[in-house]
Design goal:
30% of the residues lie in helices and 17% in strands. It has ten helices and twelve strands. The chain has helices at residues 12-22, 53-58, 73-76, 94-110, 113-121, 145-155, 183-188, 209-212, 232-240, 281-296, and strands at 2-7, 27-30, 45-49, 64-67, 85-87, 138-141, 161-165, 175-178, 192-195, 219-223, 244-249, 269-271. Helix 1 (12-22) crosses helix 10 (281-296) and helix 4 crosses helix 6 (145-155). Bound molecules: NADP nicotinamide-adenine-dinucleotide phosphate and glyoxylic acid. NADP nicotinamide-adenine-dinucleotide phosphate (NAP) is lined by residues 70-71, 94, 142-147, 165-167, 196-200, 202-203, 224-226, 250-251, 274, 276-277, 311.
Amino acid sequence: MKIVFCCTNTKAEPWLEGFRQALPGVDIWEWQAAQPGEAPKLADHAVVWSPPQSFLDEQTQLQNLFNIGAGVDALLKLKMPASLNIVRLNDAGMSVQMAEYVCHAVIRYFREFDHYDKDAQAQRWSYRKPTLRADFSVGILGAGVLGSHVAKTLQTFEFPVNVWSRSPKHIEGVKSFSGAAQLPEFLKATRVLVNLLPLTPETENILNSEHLMQLQQGAYLINVARGRHLVEQDLLDALANGHMAGATLDVFREEPLPQAHAFWTHPQITVTPHTSARTLREESIAQIAGKIKAVYAGQAIEGRVDKVRGY
Ligand code: NAP
Ligand code: GLV
């Protein structure tokens, strides 16, 4: 079994060592473009994150691309044979991180911690009137691996939780909305909007004025999916006109977020550097190695991407 590793911005050696331990006898190496005139060494499977087109053009015998992330938008931009499977990471330690991040942001807004921080800086002992939980419903765009776990976790704090997805969902205690026809009703019921959609042609720019202005007065946005979901000026406008109260953004159209970008210094925007749910090496190696063994045993595996649907 031959596996090539091609992951942008990732130190290869600990991954290669991990796969050698998980799959004894495997021939695994870090990809380097073959020199002109040199025959490339061809692999059966690849472990990838945002590889260049030249990688796929060279590796012509691949059966599976194992993505070391949940989102496959970068892979789907590349030209590849229809027979080549894309396999995403399923959770692998991400959903608990995503739930921590989103719950932290929701609770920070709900309990007005920013105000208490300011009061503490001024050594001011002053209570704020508690917000009614019923007035703080959280709407999650996307109810897949991450969205459904976030929905369940938020319920432990007894927030009203709604989800919106392509197909209806059955998550106990959570109201499910689906399809374009139910999006307005979902938005109208939302005080905190959490975005956990994959980036596809259908979802790109979905966080726009038309949709943000349908949220409840004083709404918050938590974008933890992809920067291209958000029309940045539309968020700035909704904050400026007072319809929205704040946003926590982990992902951006351009990453790293450029130094001069307005988001860095906006008093109602919190920026984090695409860190809400990190790829965890041990968990990911265990999951991918398990899937590779399943492929050789002729078993079905989770996380096969539907290239037409885009996730
Ligand atoms: P997933 O399991 O594929 O779930 C996607 C959800 O979105 C599904 O519920 C799906 O509906 C829904 N959906 C897709 N297209 C839709 C459409 N056009 N209309 C309505 N609903 C639609 O994905 P996941 O694992 O939860 O991850 C979601 C995204 O999070 C990833 O694609 C990635 O971009 C992002 N992410 C970010 C970080 C970070 O650190 N910031 C980390 C990991 C992932 P159905 O269930 O009906 O198909
Ligand atoms: C991270 O953004 C991922 O898609 O896993």
